[in-house]
Amino acid sequence: CFAMVLMTMMATWHYVHVRRYWYELDHIVPTAELASLLEENGGVRRVPGVGLLYTELVQGIPPLFPRLVRKIPSVHAVFVFISIKHLPIPHVAAAERFLFRQVGPRARRVFRCVARYGYTDALEEPREFAAFLVDGLKMFIQEESAFAPHQEMIAAAAADDAEAASSGRTPASRSEPPAAMDAEEEKRLIDREVGRGVVYLMGEANVSAGPNSSILKRIAVNYIYTFLRKNLTEGHRALAIPNDQLLKVGITYEI
Question: pLDDT digit string (tens) for 161-215?
């Protein structure tokens, strides 16, 4: 009987957690819509500081973000979507801990970060984690600034060759790649925003069964899963996030 109770709880937790993940995956916001979400003429302001939004998704914009923008029409000057992933290896080197990617136009200063940990790695303290994150972000900006001119040169050369082939003229001689965008200025901006404060944002996601769900599903989702979720360690405590830097955003998913 005891084994059956444990099995029921684990199966319910796994079922609802997977359904919740797939719900978020089916309702992600395309990256192309980021610019429209952050339009200043729509009332959205960029406020000082760095915002770190935790999400399980490693692609696209989670459905929590548009809700945050609608309820609080302001986004931090530097915004990072963070996903923490535990890999089936014992240890991940510090230099390989963070994987960054630009989200949307570069001028928006919105990034995606995947923090990877092995099963023997311990999560850093919030101050140490933020310092490592900022160092990794500045290194990413430096690498992107050095790589961008070459990408632009390759694209321009391809366009020139295509135009020359269609018109029958000789392609123009190649010039040196344009100077890279001033990465040092962008890194100084990030340091300045970090000094103004780092805010951790977490979704307080509730899950409920849909109106047409069966009785068994309603019991599993609305009662068993809710009971387990309320009695397990909260995410911000597991990540050791200071309460004075934490902002929770409530959202309900119907599965």
Answer: 555 555 555 555 554 444 455 788 888 889 999 889 888 888 777 788 888 888 8
Q: How far is CA 96 from CA 9, 115, 189, 212, in A?
A: 36, 9, 24, 46
Buried/exposed 46-84: b ≥16 CB within 10 Å, e otherwise: beebbbbbbbebeebbbbbbeebbeeeeebbbbbbbbbb
Phi, psi values for residue 175, rounded to 5°: -105, 170
Q: List the Cα angle 123/126/130 in 5-degree steps.
A: 100
Q: How far apart are CA 52 and CA 82, in angstroms?
A: 6
Residues 52, 57, 62, CA angle at the centre, nearest 5°? Answer: 70
CA pair distance 111, 187, nearest whole angstrom = 14
Cα angle for residues 209, 213, 218 (degrees, 5° grid): 50
Phi, psi dihedral angles at 104 (to 5 degrees): 75, -165
Three-state secondary structure call for residue 216: helix
- Residues in contact with 50: Cβ distance below 8 Å, sequence separation at least 6, in sequence order: 76, 77, 78, 79, 80, 134, 190, 193, 194, 196, 197, 198, 199
| Identity of residue 86 | H
pTM: 0.76
Which token pair is 111? 């990034």
Residue among 132, 100, 97 at smallest CA distance from 113: 100
The tokens of 167 are what? 């018109």
Using left for φ > 0, alpha for ψ between -120 and 50, and beta otherwise, residue 76 falls in beta
Q: Which of 37-46, 75-84, 102-111, 240-249 has the highest mean pLDDT?
A: 75-84
